[in-house]
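Deliverable D5.2: sample structural annotation.
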Amino acid sequence: MITLTTTLPDKCFSCTLPEITFTADQESAQVIIKIEGEEIFNETLYTDDDGSITLSDLADLIQPYAKEQLVVLAEINIIENDEDGNPQASVSLSTTVVYCTADFGDTSADDFLDSHFLSILLGKKITAIGRLEYLHYLGTDVATVTAYFADGSIETDLTPDVVGGNSKYTTIDVSPSLFNVDDRTLIGYVVKAGNRSQEYIMDLRNPDCAPILVFDNSFGCQELVYCTGTHTVSPQFTRSSAFIKGLLKNYKIEESREFKADTGVLNTAMANWLDDLFRSSYVEIVNFYNNVATVGKEVVITDSKSEYSNEAETQPRFTFTYKYAQRNHNVVQLAREGRIFDNTFDFTFN
């Protein structure tokens, strides 16, 4: 007989999968773990002195599969065998595993996923006309948008575009240009999907941005960061030289192009959220050419400073340094002929 001491909830985050402990009358039990029907683990385990078996480190085993698909069904089958290997009893467990590297404390995955989008942003996000904004959420709830304008008028039940996802999760385009009206000034909008809500406030200065980065967040979903502060580039060259046929020659020149970015002033919610960029393992540059966004080179953040305090006069703004991930840093962007920086001087000098 198999008796479960601990079990699995209906939904779990991949990083906080609990241990499974059970007791068995026999000395061993076969444990089979499947992800989306594919077997990834099949071993015979033996009981300890108390007649129990604990399945530890399930997060390390399952998380790579969850990262690949974002949402997966995990099944655990436990079969108790006698000394001759004949099945005596069995128990089956299953749970929906959502890829996540963040620990939300006492909040269950079920409660969080029902009331939040797949982002650690827990407050208002600042945006502007011309920027792209996307939201991701578990399930297929229909999303609606309420837009607010400077003249006091309100537009309700606007519908964002569904641009990705599957039967398990949904990605929607909530870029402000979709809800803007030519003869009115959009000052903010609220996106709702089921019990989830995300508010955007407009930066009416519509500052130019450099760099624009897209990164994989704590849920494996892509989010965009628009930096409005100073952007600088600092090429460095390492030269190896020697006398060749009596003449000094540089026989090897290695270029390392380093970029420094300033996020500009952030609100508290965005300051907390932006740490997700600094912990992300995959970041890419986004370029806007003729109002068309294209994903450019992969980059690696090599240094960041995201310190801020709770003093009333303190406004958080972060700086960070990044490089191209590829070895060759001699990158030429033909579409940006004559331009020094990614976007900073586009409208001023060109």
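Annotation notes: The mean pLDDT is 89. The CA atoms of residues 128 and 205 lie 8 Å apart.
The annotation will be released with the project's public dataset once the embargo ends.
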